[in-house]
Amino acid sequence: MNKTPQSSARVPFWLRWLIPVLLVVTWLAIAGIGGPTFGRLSEVSSNDQASFLPAGAEATEAQDWQAKFRASNQIPAVIVVESDSAFTPAQLGEAAALKGKLEAVGGGSTVVGPIPSEDAKAVQFVVPIESAGEVKAVVKELREVVQASAPAGMQTFVTGPAGLTADLVSAFAGIDGILLLVALGAVFLILLIVYRSLLLPIAVLFTSVFALCAAILLVFGMAKLGWIQLNGQSQGILSILVIGAATDYALLYVARFREALTHTTNRTAAALTAWKAAWEPIVASGATVIIALLCLLFSDLNSNKALGPVAAAGILCSLIAALTLLPAMMALLGRAAFWPFRPKLLPETEREPEYVTGLEGQKGLWRATGSLVSRRPRTVWIASVLLLLVASTGLLQLKANGVPQTDVILTASNAVDGQDALARHFDAGSGSPAVIVAQEAKAQEVLAKTKATDGVGDAYLLAEGGVPIMTGAPAAPGAPAAPTAPAVRDGKVLINATLNYAADSNEAENVVVALRQELKKTDDGALVGGVTATALDTNTTAQRDLVTIIPVVLAVILIILMLLLRSVLAPVLLVASVVLSYAAAMGVSAFVFNNVFRFPGADATVPLFGFVFLVALGVDYNIFLMSRVREESIKHGTRPGNLRGLGVTGGVITSAGVVLAATFAALSVIPIMFLVQLAFIVAFGVLLDTILVRSLLVPALAYDIGPRIWWPSKLGRPDTDAAARAQPAAPQPEAAKAGIR
């Protein structure tokens, strides 16, 4: 007869029910509070440029100066009315009548325009909009008013920074519902296939959803207190990361729980046994990802700084849910969780079989994989490395130096079409000028040098209220006198420079670089800001962050692995394997982006985000594998333990990889280029890690090296290896007489 472990027998029956019930009720309360908060994240979320600006860049400093020159924080909406032929005087009159209506929609702000184009086929207005208000709603109203009031047969656009911001917000609209539904649906389907059970997938999904509710509550509180700056990008990644990570940790625990149920009929004992076996790799895995994400705080980009604590909070909640809520549900459900394929109790003689090769008791795919690894370990790991190196060559094709803002949104956009219309009829930089901050004493010199710079169409000082001082322009009869004195704040003045190129083009960025170099020769304190300068500084900062953050992340992961595995050599090899896997994933992604999706490039932050997620999550699977391999190596020796660890973790880690890949792939439903690219990189990279690196490369390398993989720990000495001790030794009479074995 099988006996229940004494430790669980001492736990009173009522307590075995009370603790799991209390844990489940506590999580229900958290979900009840956090769930409704999901719809309130927009209250503390912002998708304007300020949430992405580089914290210490010149463009940011220039923006701070701009704020001193205006009573409110406004961004311009550029209205374009376009005709196939030149405007008639009557049509110009109708267009001019729009000004009053636009001012009414814009809250009474002064509207600049109508400004006719040189070919007389278009007019434009510039409408300042409060960026603190509902930009999307105001832009929508502007589009309705312009379309209804423009001369018949005209095309109308609302573009500029406000129009692009509104369309970006609309593109993020699916984050609250569609993204979550797609991700949860994909996970549920995969779990049904893996477990062939109905209750267990629901329990795992409850764990993920409740973890997300807790994470949302935590993130909402941090944003409300002003500790973090939340944006749509971070919000979307949070949902995906929590669902994927919580499911991964749940799969590892469930595998241990199922294994424990083959040893006892007591579900509480099984839940505790599984918890004791799973907590260390789950905590190590979660800590690795959390600390890697917090390394983003070293970034100079506000968007990166925001994502670090937001995503780390999500992983923390996933970890806690997997170690509290799920064990409580399993303790209550027991074998019923696996219905109709409940695990059977094994006879005591079959529970801890002796392993000679490590393949005993295994069958199917993982026995074949283990057999391949044991027969030709060196061939397997060398071939795997060569394959990854070949894939890594695609990195040479990666164009991660930023993309024009008009290419960020992948669906139809009135603002993007409006930018094209502006480029057809006006200076391409109209509506998004470069903003120069100069000393009052050197204003005229700076203005003259600005006008003389190649690529600048026009430049002018700004008076109070942001009114341009247009020298040499005749005043219209009856018009008020044009301002002649520039606005001054703390000895500084503002100059607007309209560029000949679209504000989000590489040519415009080159003009900004030239302006910064030339103007500092006249005024060493001159600052060049604006939309183009912000994009330039963002890309430059993102590329610098790669050099700063990557070594920190690798060092942190290496230290955690050393503490977990009590080894130096194994962690070094594991980190090297995930770095190589990352390079291969980025290489394949670059090829796909350029030749399949035909993307014009990639955001400069894509390589960094891809690195943080792939390296941290890739190490996750190696932690799951190698922690079990170490456990088995202590009992049976390194090589048998390696194959045993591969066999028992193969199914669960592969399932976890597929789940995580599916959840990140769900990001592609949001039509933002950055998120679509990140979705592909992480989904492909996770599958590469799961199928090739964790299943073949790492086991084959560890098998080939043998006990030395654990160097310098005691487990790494051949004389202390369990498998070596099990081999029959040659007779040694002298040693036998001395009592040495």
Description of the structure:
This protein has 25 helices and eight strands. With 741 residues, the protein is α+β, with helices and mostly antiparallel strands. The strands form two sheets. A four-stranded antiparallel sheet has the order 2-3-1-4. The longest helix has 35 residues, at 531-565. The radius of gyration is 31 Å and the shape is elongated. The protein starts with 5 loop residues before the first helix and ends with a helix. Mean pLDDT is 81; it is low at 1-9, 473-479 and 728-741.
What CATH first level of the domain at 1-44 and 197-352 would be assigned?
A: Mainly Alpha
How would you sum up the major sheet? 4 strands, antiparallel
User: If helices are DSSP runs of H or I spanning 4 or more residues, what is the number of helices?
Assistant: 25
The whole-angstrom Rg is 31 Å
- How many beta-strand segments? 8
Query: What's the helical proportion of residues?
Result: 55-70%
According to CATH, the fold-level topology of the domain at 1-44 and 197-352 is Multidrug efflux transporter AcrB transmembrane fold
Bulk shape = elongated
What is the average per-residue confidence, as pLDDT, rounded to a whole number?
Answer: 81
- Spatially, the strands of the biggest sheet line up as 2-3-1-4
The CATH level-2 architecture of the domain at 1-44 and 197-352 is identified as Up-down Bundle
Strand fraction equals 5-15%
Name given to the CATH homologous superfamily of the domain at 1-44 and 197-352: Multidrug efflux transporter AcrB transmembrane domain
Terminal CA distance: 37 Å
